[in-house]
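queue> pop job 88
queue> type: inverse folding (structure -> sequence)
queue> payload:
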């Protein structure tokens, strides 16, 4: 990935993100972004907040896990060697 855009930190500690980055990652005004600190520097990534009521409850996750175990034990699953192959398979199911 290209990293040629260099921007100054303004007097109020603000940085303007390049238009190219905003378009590439579909970031719009008022979107939320996270700052992840790594050995190499700061990773800036868009994030989505999920309401707790809209997320899975622990019972739901337990049921999903039981269902997955049953499918695996029955041999009722498809294994993929890459995410591209999985996406291709799922698109074929549409």
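queue> result:
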């Amino acid at each position: 990935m290209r990293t040629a855009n260099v921007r100054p930190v303004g007097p109020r500690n603000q940085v303007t993100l390049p238009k190219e980055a905003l378009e590439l990652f579909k970031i719009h005004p008022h979107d939320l972004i996270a700052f992840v600190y790594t050995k190499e520097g700061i990773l800036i990534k868009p994030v989505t907040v999920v309401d707790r009521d809209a997320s899975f409850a622990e019972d739901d996750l337990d049921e999903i896990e039981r269902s997955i175990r049953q499918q695996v034990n029955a041999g009722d699953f498809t294994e993929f060697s890459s995410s591209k192959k999985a996406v291709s398979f799922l698109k074929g199911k549409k």
